[in-house]
Amino acid sequence: MAGGFDARGDWSIAFGRGANDTAESIKCYAVRSGSCWLIADGEDEPLRLATGDAVILTGTRGFRIASHPNVPAVDFTELLATPLDGSILSYNGGGEFFAVGGYFSYSDRHASILLRLLPRVLHLSNASERTSIRHSLELMSDELRS
């Protein structure tokens, strides 16, 4: 599943796992414009993401993205009942912050081995890391626009 998120003003969106959702997954998000905070369950500090940054989250832990860590969160399922499937969710009219992202779910018995080897939160922010993912982000953005 992949999609985009376009926001304006104060906002905070929570992404969690339901009690019956045990699928292991890798979630990937990239900030195309603006900035936000990532508050991941089990992490000590919020992580600031700026234009060009990307983050990879592994496992089944919940997290939220927000314009500021103190803004109360709205559950993602309240905003969107079905997967984005390539569309863009606009919040408060959009225009100040835009990110693209998606997730991959794994049901194979070997998935837990892979996910244990990866860090829970991987922040890609320096120039060489940005260069390595730029092409993929441009393709994802073009696909969303199409």
Automatic annotation (TrEMBL):
Q: What's the superkingdom here?
A: Bacteria
Output the Pfam families linked to this UniProt entry: Cupin_6
Concerning InterPro entries, the annotation shows: AraC_lig
Keyword tags: DNA-binding
Query: Which Gene Ontology MF annotations are present?
Result: DNA binding
Q: Which residues form the AraC-type transcription regulator ligand-binding domain?
A: 5-145
Q: Spell out the protein name for this chain.
A: Cupin
Q: Which organism is it from?
A: Rhizobium hainanense
